[in-house]
Design brief:
- The protein has helices at residues 6-21, 40-58, 81-96, 102-121, 137-155, 167-181, 193-200, 208-214; strands at residues 127-130, 133-136.
- The radius of gyration is 17 Å and the shape is globular.
- Helix 1 (6-21) runs parallel beside helix 5 (137-155) and helix 2 (40-58) packs parallel to helix 4.
- With 225 residues, the chain is mostly helical.
- Helix content is 53%, strand content 4%.
- The chain is built from eight helices and two strands.
- It has a single domain (6-172), classed as Up-down Bundle (Four Helix Bundle (Hemerythrin (Met), subunit A)).
Amino acid sequence: MTAIRPGEALAQAYDGVTAVVDGLDDAGLQRATRCHGWLVADLLLHVLGDAQRALVALASPVDGPADVDDVSYWRGFPGGGDAATRHAWWVRRSAAAFDRPTLIVRLWRETAPAAVRAAGSADPEGYVSTQGHVLRVPDFLATLTTEAVVHHLDLTSELPDAPAPGPLAVRVAVATMDGLLSDDAVRPTAWTDHDYLLKATGRVPLTDRDRLELGEPAGWFPLLG
C-alpha cells in the first residue's frame, strides 16, 4: 500500500474528473476519448460506476484478511478480452439511455463527493470487498484513485485545455505502475508522470527508444489494460 494519504488522493482524483467535464455542453460530452469506442459521456458513466461501487463497499465492511493490495489487485484485470468488450458495449448503451449527456455529469456531481465523504469516514484499519476481492480500505481507495487518474487522462484526448489530474492523485497512480513494473526496472528518464501512465496502460505505444531504455521490461507493457 502506498504511504500517500488515500482519502485526500481520491478527493483530488474525483475533483479532477469533475473539473474536466463540468463546463462541457452536450456536444462536448460527445467528443472521443482514449478508450476505444467511448465518448466522454460514456467514460464518465464508467467512472461513475466506480464511485457507486465505492459507496456500496465502504458502507459494507467485511472481515479480513485481504487477499490483494493496491498493486496485486490489478493483476486480475489484464484488459481486453470478451468480458471487457461486453462491458464497453453495456456502458455505451447505458449512457445512451440518458436523455442528455449532461445528465450524467449531474449524477456524477452528486455521487463522487458522497464517495469521497464515505472514504473519509471509513476505518483505515478496516476491510472491504469488491470485484471478488478483499482489500484494506486504504488499498481500495488507491485502486479507485489510480483508475480515476488514468481515465482523467483518457477524457482529455480531444480536450487539450482541460486541467490535469492533481499531483497527489497522480503519485498514487504512478506508485501503482511502479509496483506492477517491479523494482528491477527503471522507467525512461525523459518520461513525465503522464507519459508513464499513458504508456504503462497502453494508451500510447512504446517507441524504439523507450524499448531500448527499458530493455527486457519493455515486454511487460502494457502493465495495466
